[in-house]
Design the sequence.
């Protein structure tokens, strides 16, 4: 496992897709904190901090898309170049290969996030909002845990699709489609939950509300909306749900990959 | 004889299609084993199974005595290298970086030996050039170099000369022979360029319809493919007497035919046969190549 990780880490560090996505996230961080600077002058420092914090957690909303694009270029290239055969022929286990992809895709996801945070700190501190940027950084740890768990979920999904599709283009299309479907479902559930929690709906549709409540917890993209919302109830159950989903997808992926015919 | 690989009644199904049906084979240590078969005969499927890319539906094989279903197979695989179909190299890396990458996968403590490997396959001057800019021959040689990382003693090559120009074919042939002779590497090589294979192989396995039709050594094949003159006569007993008296090596093929393993003087042969009251009906020169032997073998099976 260590030797595979070492080899794939070297490949990750020299990957253009990895460098380009990091640069993109850094650029997004710069843009968001320029916008934060504009908002600071409009809102004043007191109202500004929660919003600035939202910018910090924004990547969790689109990291799934980034990983759906990045993973086929990283793990998928092993299929495209046929180099996965070199690994299997010299006795690397299939579980080792799968987990190595997963660990490095998750590492890449966290790296994208860090790139955006770094940009926020640099642009925020030295440019637009000054020391207030550090106030925005001090959010409850549970939010950070949620964001990490959701990044883990998207990593497992991207690796699952890439490894089983065994084709760069097909996994790219399937990954983006999966992201779009899950995001649309999450937005729908979040919108319904917001609607049903208005005073005029109090006491109405309790069963529907419960179903949406469960879906809102389980569907990662609905949880993401809660992560970035400053008013959300931060539930550790989001973290547990995301980790359980990630574990289930990984177990299924390992099972299917162990039986897959490689060409 | 010691065998590197033995396959015992391997079956492989893809849905309803049966790619291998009870294939059995033995690859002797130190040999260059040529796997001969038509397209779709099951050569690549067999190689994929041996390399661990796919599992057999039924049957088992052993590599260096390690059973394919045991955990020891992982250790045994460390002793082999493979190039399956296309050379498996990172196209966005140089030759040296590709080898370093394989060294890391193998968990080698240092990059010692990379220069020697590059020299061995003639890529020492490739420098920083990325593999995507290599010619097909260079990619093929790089693929072999990657397979040679970790000093394996069993090399599996699937169609290594496919798509190469004559110069490239010669280079790959010389490389395989050098690896076999100098490093005593056992090579399993599949190809349908039979003429090329006949210049390399010390053993052959003829495969058709997912079955091993025949396994034969190069010496046995040479004997089977000996140049001869086939004569057709009216009286085979009389012909045998004449051939004995002329001291010619021959074998009787049928009631009317015999193969003479020499170039006889047709005039004196005709005269001698005529003196025995035997008529010479026809003389044909037979020069059976690996190709005609294979076609004959496959034809007989069908």
Sequence:
């Amino acid at each position: 496992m260590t030797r595979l990780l070492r080899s794939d880490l070297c490949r990750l560090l020299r990957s253009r897709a990895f460098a380009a996505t990091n640069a993109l996230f850094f650029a997004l961080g710069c843009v968001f904190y320029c916008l934060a600077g504009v908002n600071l002058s409009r809102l004043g420092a007191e109202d500004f901090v929660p919003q600035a914090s939202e910018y910090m957690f924004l990547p969790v909303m689109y990291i799934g898309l980034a990983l759906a694009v990045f993973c086929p270029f990283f793990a998928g290239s092993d299929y495209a170049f046929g180099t996965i055969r070199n690994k299997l022929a010299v006795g690397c286990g299939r579980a080792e290969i799968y987990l190595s992809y997963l660990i490095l895709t998750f590492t890449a996801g966290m790296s994208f996030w860090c790139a955006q945070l770094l940009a926020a700190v640099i642009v925020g501190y030295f440019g637009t909002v000054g020391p207030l940027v550090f106030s925005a950084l001090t959010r409850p740890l549970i939010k950070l845990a949620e964001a990490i768990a959701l990044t883990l979920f998207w990593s497992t999904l991207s690796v699952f699709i890439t490894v089983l599709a065994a084709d760069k283009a097909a996994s790219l299309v399937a990954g983006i489609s999966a992201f779009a479907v899950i995001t649309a479902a999450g937005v729908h559930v979040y919108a319904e939950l917001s609607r049903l929690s208005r005073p005029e709906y109090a006491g109405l549709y309790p069963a529907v509300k419960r179903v949406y409540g469960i879906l809102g917890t389980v569907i990662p993209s609905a949880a993401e909306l809660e992560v970035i919302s400053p008013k959300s109830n931060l539930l550790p159950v989001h973290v547990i749900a995301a980790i359980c989903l990630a574990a289930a997808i990984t177990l299924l992926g390992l099972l299917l990959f162990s039986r897959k015919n490689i060409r | 004889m010691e065998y590197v690989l033995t396959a015992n009644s391997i079956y492989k199904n893809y849905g309803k299609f049966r790619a291998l049906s009870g294939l059995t084979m033995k690859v002797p240590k130190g040999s260059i084993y040529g796997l001969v078969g038509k397209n779709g005969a099951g050569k690549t499927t067999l190689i994929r199974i041996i390399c661990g890319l796919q599992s057999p539906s039924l049957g088992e094989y052993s590599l260096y005595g390690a059973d394919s279903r045991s955990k020891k197979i992982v250790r045994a695989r460390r002793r082999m290298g493979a190039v399956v179909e296309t050379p498996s190299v990172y196209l966005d890396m140089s030759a040296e970086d590709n080898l370093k990458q394989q060294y890391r996968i193998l968990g080698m403590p240092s990059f010692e030996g990379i220069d020697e490997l590059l020299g061995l396959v003639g890529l020492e001057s490739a420098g920083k050039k990325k593999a995507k800019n290599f010619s097909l021959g260079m990619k093929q040689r790089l693929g072999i170099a990657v397979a040679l990382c970790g000093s394996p003693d069993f090399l599996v090559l699937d169609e290594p000369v496919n798509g190469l120009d004559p110069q490239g074919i010669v280079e790959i042939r010389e490389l395989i022979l050098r690896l076999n002779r100098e490093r005593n590497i056992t090579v399993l090589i599949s190809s349908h360029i039979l003429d090329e294979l006949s210049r390399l192989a010390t053993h052959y396995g003829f495969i058709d319809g997912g079955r091993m039709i025949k396994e034969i050594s190069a010496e046995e094949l040479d004997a089977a493919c000996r140049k001869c003159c086939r004569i057709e006569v009216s009286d085979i007993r009389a012909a045998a007497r004449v051939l004995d008296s002329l001291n010619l090596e021959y074998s009787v093929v049928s009631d009317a035919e015999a193969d003479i393993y020499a170039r006889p003087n047709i005039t004196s042969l005709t005269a001698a046969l005529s003196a025995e009251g035997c008529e010479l009906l026809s003389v044909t020169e037979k020069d059976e190549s690996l190709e005609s032997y294979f076609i004959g073998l496959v034809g007989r099976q069908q």
